[in-house]
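Form P-L/3: holo structure prediction, ligand FE2/S2 (inorganic) cluster.
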Amino acid sequence: MPYRINIQPGNLSLVVESHETILEAALAQGFRFPYGCDAGSCEVCSGTLTSGSLHLKTKDIDVFAGDDNSDDVLFCLAQPTSDCTIIMEGVLAPGELPMIAVSCQVVEVTPYASDTSEITLRLPAGKKITFHPGQYLMVILDEETHCAFSIGNTPNEERLIKLYVGFANKDKNALRLRSRFVAGNMVKISLPHGNCYLENPTSTAPLYLVAGSTGISQIKSITEQCIAENHPRQVFIYWGTRSSDELFLHDYFLQVASTHPNIQYTAVVSESDKQWQGRTGLVHQAMLDDGHDLTGAEIMLCGSPPMVYAVLDDLLAIGVQKHQVNSDVFDYAPRD
Ligand code: FES
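OUTPUT (holo model):
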């Protein structure tokens, strides 16, 4: 009989058959779970049972949450006898990367139009730090102020990270960030964050990447992953801004689309703009107007919560399934 194990503090969920140990099930399902001997000796797999009950095989002991021995359970021996909640530090879900906080150097600041800059950071040497293209980092201004930025490139051997930061907003944090993002400065960051990345990079499903404003940073990272892995899936990029001078990566995406037949790029400007000869209106409306068959497609939305939920509603209304759509917004600004 299967039981559901909730693992804290990561709030992970694991299904374990009654004849399996929690460690066996975790490893079989691709979780990273601290362990050593797998035989009840080293105690590396020790954690706490906070609800439910377990049976410790070989010791032939039942443990119930709240018992004296429930603080020190060896999960390599523990077979569930009910749904449980356990506390075990260091457990990572399949594909999840360990989060780390480090200081890194601002290598270069390249200004673009519309008060947006490309910030190049270099991660410290000697530490294995990686991320999934599409994830974001937090710049730690102080203990209480963490600012999220999508990473605009893929992991690389030079340990470089690109951010695209808009400074048009003159609030206090924007001013603090501008003073930190100066070549030669050190900034503290934590990474990786976010669940909006390609869970199956080898999927052949058409990929629709829809961004508003600096949300294009996340799309750039995923596009570079698709190019680096030389995968032939069809990729449709839609980028919307208010005015054409906010299209700070326009030339980059034009060049990508012109050299990769499987990648299409469409820029859409929402406010009237005499210099702009291209598409106008709302970015997702442009995608819908293009009449794509979205059956089975994978769709990523990168932008503000109002933009993302407006696009989601329009997609659901034409029959797109919720599971086809992913966005960081669903995690940090849930609607329900
Ligand atoms: S892994 Fe050694 S006691 Fe569980």
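COMMENT: The radius of gyration is 23 Å.
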